[in-house]
Fold this sequence. Notes:
InterPro entries: DUF1203. This is DUF1203 domain-containing protein. It holds the Pfam family DUF1203. By secondary structure, the chain is mainly beta. It has one domain. Helix content is about 10%, strand content about 40%. It has helices at about 20-25, 120-130; strands at about 5, 30-35, 40, 45-50, 55-65, 70-80, 85-90, 100-105, 110-115, 135-140, 145-154. The strands form 3 sheets. A 6-stranded antiparallel sheet has the order 7-1-11-10-8-9, with helices on one face. Strands 2-5-6 form a 3-stranded antiparallel sheet. Strands 3-4 form a two-stranded antiparallel sheet. Strand 10 and strand 11 (about 145-154) form a beta hairpin. The protein is globular and about 45 Å long.
Amino acid sequence: MSFRVTGLSAQPFAHLFGLSDHELARHGALRLMTGEGDRHPDRIELRLARPGETVLLVNHEHQGADTPYRSRHAIFVREHASASFDAIDRLPLMLRSLMSLRAFDADGMMVDADVAEGEAVEALIERLLSQPGVAYLHAHYARRGCYAALIRRA
């Protein structure tokens, strides 16, 4: 089954790009410089930030449905990122770590979930999307629980 992976739009975060650290703090955000060995996964381009790039640590509502599963959590966005990742049947490298995939129906209710790592992530995507009641998947990093990406049928 074909699937489509999309990153977040940069637009909701653009007003934060270039703000001073003090102004970012007023928005509940924090700027970090990525160093060698740091793992700051950007949720817009769906890639790890490179050493020397800045990321913003922000709180983001990734599940806005008015259900008990409504959810928000901390995520990284690369400062000045612009082009959202959007690919069919191609899983970005950062989504091959230990992932929790959460399947939601059209009303925003979670109907299934499981974890996978490496090449097994694609098989789990296919298994979850093959269920008729599943409208979309949210990928989360299993260890810290952070939202990673949206996955739908292509």
